[in-house]
Amino acid sequence: MPSLNISDLAWAPDGRPRWLLQGIDLQVRAGEFVGLIGPNGSGKTSLLRCAYRADRPAFGWVALDGDDLWRRSPRWSAQRIAVVLQEFPQDFGLAVAEVVAMGRSPHKGLFDGDDAEDARIVDEALAAVGMAGLREQAFARLSGGEKQRVLLARALAQRPGLLLLDEPTNHLDPRYQLELLQQLRELRLSTLASFHDLNLAAAFCDRLYVLDQGRVVASGTPTDVLTAELLQQVFGVHALVDRHPLADHPRITWITP
Questions:
Q1: In-domain check, residue 85
Q2: Residues 6+ apart with CB under 8 A from 77
Q3: Degrees, nearest 5: CA angle 177-27-84
Q4: Which end of the chain is least crowded, N or C, by CB within 10 Å?
Q5: Are residues 154 and 194 in the same domain?
Q6: Which residues are in the ABC transporter domain (predicted)?
């Protein structure tokens, strides 16, 4: 599995006088599951967009196993990096299996059709997310949670080394949140994911980076990072942080005023 290194990254949208990301240093080691947390507007999605070549940093660099992504072609990146976003793409009337098969595109020539190996990979990806029984269903008719699982299957069909996820548990009920994150951990892909749910981040991430106003303000294991003091500082909310009674990770209970 490859490693991701982001060094001294800064980014601002065109025409904006203020940096939305500044001085970002981040690493995802081979096979590591790393979480991005922070309040709304802290820069999580913007950082992910820089990591998958949607937005070019003004300064700094993004490298996969030492290769600067912006010195490589989009096709090279797509063969190695898969992305699952919060928004659902236009499906153009496609069935579930056809959406997942789109993940094979970076590995195909312009006029290549799908072959038996592609079909096998699509079937494996659908089975991995529990959607094999709906392979012929129209993507547009799925629930939000089902669509999210199909898009993860499409990402897995790319056979990436690095997986980038923007709120992967968005639209999912608790059962599928837990199942999805457990599946991701078992894949042992190098993974960078943003989270709103800090308890899920604590349970499944090897390390966390905390963003606030476009800067990394803390990083480390969930135990190192998720303290009552930091949560008050970054999120402006009081919390009780203790150990989960059935697992060795922090548990956060928000304290209402």
A1: no
A2: 52, 53, 64, 69
A3: 35
A4: C
A5: no
A6: 4-238
